[in-house]
Amino acid sequence: MSDAQSTKNLGRGGSPLALLGQPNFLKVWMVGAVVGTMRWLDMLAIGVYVLEVTGSALTVAMTLFVRMLPMFLFGAIAGAYAERVDRKKLLVFFLFLLAVIYGILFALVKTSNLELWHLAVGLFFSGIFWALELTVRRTMVAEIAGMNNISAAMGLDTCTNNATRMLGPFLGGFLYETYGLEGTLILGVFLHVIAGFLLIRVEYLSSPLKGGRISIIANIIEGVQFVRSSRPVMATLAITIILNLFGFSFMSMVPVIAKEELLLTPFPTGVLMSAEGCGALIGALLIAFFASSKRFHQIYFFGASLYLCCIILFSISTYFISSSILLLLGGFGLSGFAAMQSALILGNTPPEKRNRVMGVLATCIGFGPIGILTVGMLANQMGAATAVMIMSGSGISLMLCAILYWPEMRKVHDI
After folding, report:
1. What whole-number distance in Å separates Cα of residue 77 and Cα of residue 323?
2. Which of 9, 58, 185, 405 is 20 to 30 Å from 267 by CA-CA measure?
3. Is the Cβ–Cβ distance between 220 and 395 less than 8 Å?
């Protein structure tokens, strides 16, 4: 499918089940499921491992910082570069590269030669793929489904991501407690290989742009200029920055809070993190089947707000059950934010500019490492729970400012 084949008709379109009946859509969707499971699985396992080795909340935060840093450094570049190459081949190359990297890390663990900088290198390359996967694979999902099916397509893809947010930590906690870090790493080899072969079988033809290197720079500039001219896109990106700076940074502190405040071992820590994914999965299913395009802005804004409110309450919870319920509700809100984020960007952007604007989105998501570093430094000084409370409280304040500046985000209207 070429970019020119994307339609401009935006609405509910076909049903999610009908989309899953399309072989190409199903394969790209399954790739998201496989790589998402691995991402959340090893985010939990590596966080627990680093905490056991160093005992430092800041060092644990740095593992997520290194993983998300490429999103900030290369997000916009990835979107512009993807327009000049065969996008499917680019993703396949990185999937097999990650399989090799995880195999090397597994060998280092088995020979007792693993050092933290080895993990950092692996996490950095994983982060590069994350930036590409967000920019390229999500655009492939939308284009294969057809823009008239954007709500169902993004809802289904968000369902996958949220299901992996539930399955990944649960599986990661079990693997780590049963087999140690090597269990996580060897699974990473197999999952990345499986995803690579799935993607190879997808029939998808991109139309690379021609021109010299300056075209990449020009594409980035043009993408930024378009963003500045569009209030809906600007609002979407501003809320993205707020949530990644002040909301998602809490994930790096969950293993610390679970151990220090809730006195949990790795497996129940994984169960705790899975609660967020469970709530997000429920919300994403509702969005996929029932969301109206007229309410996309509302779902996006109020979902993000609910997520931040639940995080601040989670930071003061001292019981496993109440903490799990709060993360479940927070995940429900997060599903609205996650599903509508790409839908609002893609729906408000001309087809020929989608990859570069999605690259700008990846850069905005890449602001997360700043929040991760900040919460880690605060945690070292004040404790993990207090650090999360300060960050999420700041995020709620900024969300109030956002809704005052972009009141259309709380109104019913078409995108």
Report:
1. 39
2. 58
3. no
Q: Is residue 349 part of a domain?
A: yes
Does the residue 6 lie in any domain?
no
> Which residue, chain included where needed, has tokens 């990449």?
216
In a domain, 183, yes or no: yes
In this structure, what token pair is assigned to residue 50? Answer: 């680093």
Domain count, the chain: 1
pLDDT tens for 242-251 read 998 999 888 8
Q: Other CB atoms closer than 10 Å to residue 414's CB: what's the count?
A: 12
- pTM of the complete model: 0.71
Q: What is the total residue count of the chain?
A: 415
Look at residue 200 and tell me whether its pLDDT is greater than 70.
Answer: yes
Residue 252: CATH number of its domain: 1.20.1250.20
How buried is 98 (Cβ within 10 angstroms: 0-12 exposed, 13-18 middle, 19+ buried)? buried
Euclidean distance between CA atoms 231 and 406, whole angstroms: 8
Instruction: Tell me whether residue 156 is exposed, middle or buried, using C-beta atoms within 10 angstroms of its C-beta: 0 to 12, 13 to 18, 19 or more.
Output: buried
Residue 236, domain extent: 12-204+211-410
Q: Which residue has the tokens 């896109």?
A: 233
Closest C-alpha to 196, from 272, 93, 124 = 93
Q: Which residues contact 55 (CB under 8 A, 6 or more apart)?
A: none
How far apart (Å, rounded) are the C-alpha atoms in residues 27 and 206? Answer: 17
Helices 150-179 and 181-200 meet at what angle, rounded to 10? 150
Cβ neighbourhood burial of 358 (10 Å; 0-12, 13-18, 19+): buried
In a domain, 3, yes or no: no
Question: 284 with 159: CB under 8 angstroms?
Answer: yes
**pLDDT tens, 30-77?**
898 899 888 888 888 888 899 888 888 888 888 888 888 887 777 666
Q: Which two tokens stand for residue 317?
A: 């919870």
